[in-house]
Design goal:
The chain is an alpha+beta fold. The chain folds into 3 domains: 143 residues, MFS general substrate transporter like domains (Growth Hormone, Chain: A, Up-down Bundle), CATH 1.20.1250.20; 209 residues, MFS general substrate transporter like domains (Growth Hormone, Chain: A); 186 residues, Sandwich (Immunoglobulin-like). It is 48% helix and 17% strand. The chain has 16 helices and 17 strands. Strand 11 and strand 12 form a beta hairpin. Helix 3 packs antiparallel against helix 9 and helix 3 crosses helix 11. The chain starts with 5 loop residues before the first helix and ends with a helix. 42% of the residues are buried. Keywords: Membrane, Peptide transport, Protein transport, Transmembrane, Transmembrane helix, Transport. This is MFS domain-containing protein. One of its GO terms (molecular function) is transmembrane transporter activity. Belongs to the major facilitator superfamily. Proton-dependent oligopeptide transporter (POT/PTR) (TC 2.A.17) family. It comes from Caenorhabditis tropicalis.
Length: 648
Amino acid sequence: MDFGLREPVILYGSSIYVVGHVLLSLGAVPFLSYPIRSSLDFSGLFVIAFATGCIKPCVSAFAADQFTEDQKDLRSQFFSFFYFAINGGSLFAIIITPILRGRVQCFGNQHCFPLAFGVPGVLMLLALILFLMGWSMYRKYPPSKENVGSKVIAVIYTSLRKMVGGASRDKPVTHWLDHAAPEHSQKMIDSVRGLLNVAVIFCPLIFFWALFDQQGSTWVLQARRLDGRVGHFSILPEQIHAINPVCVLILVPIFEGWVYPALRKVTKVTPLRKMAVGGLLTAFSFAIAGVLQLKVNETMEFPPSPGRIYLQRVGNESLITDFRNKIDGNLIGDGMLPKGRTELDAGIYTFNTGLKNESQEIDISIQNKGYVMAVFRLEQGVKVVKFDYKVEKTDNGATRVFVVSAKDDENSLVYAINKKGKILSSCELKSGSYVDVIPGIISDPNVRLYWGPKNNCSGIDCPNTVSLNAQMGAVHVLHIHPTTTEQDFNLLVRPNSVSILWSLPQYVIITLGEVLLSVTGLEFAYSQAAPNMKSVLTAMWLLTVFAGNLIDMMISGTRLIPHPALEFFFYSILMVIVMGVFILLAMQYTYVEDNDEEITITESEKKDVIALTEIESGTATTNDKKNNLSASFLHIACFNFLPFSLEI
């Protein structure tokens, strides 16, 4: 996008963005029909994607345009604090959105997605208002009349056409783009040359984003298998990602105030050197993630082998004999099915109970499932109860407790209640029903289960109770009978036992890589572009994010590497190789300043800028500029709330 059009594009793009929020929020209302909700969801995502394409390539370039030619050092610091504002918004989103979604109930549901999408909409509207408040103080350039995109294509096409046609063999040139002369001006040719040179440098950085953006995908999946309890505090899997913006908010001032000045005293600190170190740190962070995953694998609950199932036996019947497959008649072991979990081939089984050898049958033929089989000895005979469950850890840090009883009673309820007497979850006293104990931000893992007739009690006043140590990821089954105790819990899925704090090193290191590479990349894209190419090159920088996500889809999304630890190590090795290529390219790169090729605005354009600024706002004071940039930072922070909300 050409300079001069940035501020109206940001304005209109922000307005469209608000509409996208409204559509997403409406699409999350549960009582609407599925076709309407789907239409609103996809429309909202499309509108937001379109608005993002309008805003993101322009906002950083527009803000950097507010600095004059003699403020290059300040402009370099601006990109760091621009990133600081981005992460301020993302930190707010990462902390608040899971709470709005999972801790607030609305429209009769346990989750409130309309609120989770609606709050970012309100903040985006606030961002738009803040942007308009500084409108009269912005330094604006007059829009150019030329179409930069078509000019770039035309220069490349002309050069290739002449090279292929051999029209310029007798005219040696220093660069293949010089073949575009005299049809195109030397200024435009130089601009396109600079654009392509930076584009080549950007290509390896696609893989940085392929790794970095997994903080919101594969790293969250890893966090779901970690124990998020830290004392009385609970960290949800999605909230661990908050470490990233927190570290950015801490590290950016440290690097700008102390690290970079200290390094400049001993060596030359260039953007490409910083980006290379950042890429290598990112590779190291994934190696750490791989090592952590190996430890997590030791605590995982692996599903049954293909074609087999898990059978968990509970109940008060003590004698089960002649347990065999009904189809082939093969006896399982010695025929005495023990209590606890047994792995069997999926199928239909017969067995005898008690001293009278009462014949029973059970269908457990759905492969790769877990089954609970409760065998009860009652006065009127034997009762067999069966239900299935997923052999995997719970999400969202919950502890799940299935109930099983010889006498189902839909008029009785089971309550999970914390020490403050708050009901966390409830279900009918019916075999196969369950309660989920989801930890709060501050919560005690010790809760109690109460049950009784719902007409006579409603929680802690119920006559029956048992204590539960709620461990993240665990799944239990509780046999409820007149004298139930803690001994009647049976563990179906092991809890998460590796502390989530062990993931801190990988988050800190990848954030170091981000500060060195991503922050510097924005500055590099702006500083190396001609004035009429700054938004184009910024858009190209953002395009590397898109390409990196495509790589994620092709590798992680398709489960090309089925084992998470191997996948992390693969990404780490790949990033080291790619950064080797990047370093080789960087060694050949010549900075625009070093080559005296920086393209400045023409004198006529400068006059237009001065005239336009004087007409709109007069001569701006230093305080006006500070207020202007403050409004811009607040706009950026609010604008960056939604992308992280969508991840969560």
